[in-house]
Amino acid sequence: MSFIVQIGADQQSSLKQDLSQSMNLKEEDILLKRIFEDDIFSLEIRAPQGMKKNTIEHRLHANSKIRQFQSNLKSEWRREPNDPEFSIQNNLKLIGLDEAWNFTTGGLSPSGHEIVVAVVDDGFDINHEDINGSIWVNKAEIPDNQIDDDDNGYIDDVIGINTRSSNSGIHELKSHGTSVMGIVGAKGDNNIGIAGVMWDVKILLISNIQFADDIIEGFDYVREQRQRFNESGGREGAYIVANNYSGGISEAFEEDQPILCDIINRLGDQGILTVVSAPNKDVDIDVVGDLPADCSSEYLIVVTNTTVAEDEKFSSSGFGSRNVDLGAPGRGVTSIRPDNAYEPFGGTSAAAPHVSGAVSLMYSLPCEFIDSLSIADPASASLFIKDLILSNTDQKSSLSGVTTTGGRLNVINPIMAARDLCFEIPEDMLIKVTPNPLLKGQPVDIELETPFLDQHTLSIYSMAGDLIYTETLDAPISGKASIRVPEHLLNTHEGLFNIIVNTDEQTATSRLVITGISR
User: Where in the chain is the domain with CATH 2.60.40.1930?
Assistant: First the structure.
């Protein structure tokens, strides 16, 4: 857990001793780094999983060496990325990602774990400029030493495995897998190329899938990494929440490949949803068969292809009222290609990674319920996320009767559905100002509670009606936000002031008294 603290001079060492003793931690679990002048430090506490944040905050409050402290909150920027090709990515706008990114763009879970998506495919351009830094790295493996350091059966599997190569972590350069991983997680807001569904994610690579045994081997590698994570409390393995396979075996049923279908359940037991694509032809897979799409696992999501322009099922894509769950954009999509290229990429292969990205994005929400459940009961968490996504699609007549949901993926809808489950949303807007009265020259903190999700405007007026300060605020998904007004703006003011927060639907007001002499 990370904080910013203000302490007295020359108290850095003694503070570490105090905190380690009061929290029963090793001193190396208390990290202090000076970040401003000689009294402001970042404080990272590597607390055990069972230690609550409010317990840590109580210890910080009780320590006399700490003058004040605050949580080290993540800074934000505007949610439409600056990637030059985003303007043509109508597929992402269609499924509500431009709205969803106001609340999360991926990265870490609330408890600080890297969110990982497995992509099981043919091969990858791991050096593409728009995927830089997004490849999952097996930190338990030492590169190029020809030793299976983590004892998982693979030598040098530093960046996943190639199922048909003795060099486990060497992936062939292929366009299909490259494009799939670009849809999941091409870097967003990096001023390069396109944006993925998740701007920030780790992608675990499984390549050279040719036969059913390759699929099973790849899936098993994914399962084992998540199992290691679960059993080690996050110290080993990977926090894999989605497993994307944009392929299949035509005209095959579960009874033909029971082992393949069973392993999807085993991934689900560890907390992984497997997302697969329907065939790229107009067939009813309930009748003709397709694997893994026809597997009966509850931990499986099957995706068909919808067009971006018409927003309807593409004619040459598979369907099934029992086995195909929803549609997602696959016709009219742009993704990355090898050698730093960007080209159209379509079919159900493009549709599935939209859903895999959406699944993973849900785990990055600042939602303690989802985060805690994913650690305590990973399987239940995965089913909870699946239900949120499938219960909140945009209904489309072309998908009615040919998919289980009758809908096309929408990313903002499940986020909004999770809001009431994750947070205690206030019924009305309320603002509280502290400290009040305020010594002139000090910063003022405003706590906002609001049920509204449109933009909020904060204004501070003198009693004479002069506007002292104004700021436009993004809506907090949790219903609560902390706002700090810069202290220099109030250096020259004294007296009584009105603080007003407006939305299109409601106005909240409070008063602030500024008194005394500037510091």
Answer: 430-515
CATH (residue range 2-71)? 3.30.70
Per-residue pLDDT tens for 233-264?
999 999 999 999 999 888 888 888 888 888 89
For the stretch 290-337, pLDDT in tens is 999 999 999 999 999 999 999 999 999 999 999 999 999 999 899 999
- Residue 38's pLDDT is 65
Fold of 430-515: Immunoglobulin-like (2.60.40)
Q: Cα angle at 339 between 337 and 343, to 5 degrees?
A: 30
Distance CA 234, CA 211 (A): 32
Residues 6 or more apart whose Cβ sits within 8 Å of residue 281: 316, 317, 318
User: CATH topology for 86-421?
Assistant: Rossmann fold (3.40.50)
Which runs of consecutive H residues, i.e. helices, occur in 365-517? 368-376, 378-390, 412-422
d(CA 398, CA 377): 36
Contacts of 285 (CB under 8 A, 6+ apart): 278, 279, 293, 294, 318, 319, 320, 323, 324
Return d(Cα 387, Cα 327) in angstroms, integer: 15
DSSP for 112-168, please give it: SPBEEEEEESS---TT-GGGTT-B---TTS-TTSSS-TT-SS-SS-TT-EETT-SST
What are the residue ranges of CATH 3.40.50.200 in the chain? 86-421
Q: Quick check: helix, strand or coil at residue 67?
A: strand
By the 8 A CB rule, do 44 and 56 touch? no
**Where residue 75 falls among pLDDT bands split at 50, 70, 90?**
very low
| Burial of 298 per CB tally in 10 Å (0-12, 13-18, 19+) | middle
Rounded to the nearest 10 degrees, the angle between the axes of helix 378-390 and helix 368-376 is: 130
pLDDT digits (tens, 9 = 90+) for 4-41: 688 876 777 788 888 888 888 888 888 887 644 567 67
Strands 115-120 vs 202-207: parallel, antiparallel or unpaired? parallel
The amino acid occupying position 293 is A
Q: Where in the chain is the domain with CATH 3.30.70?
A: 2-71
Alpha helices by DSSP H, 198-324: 212-232, 258-270, 285-288
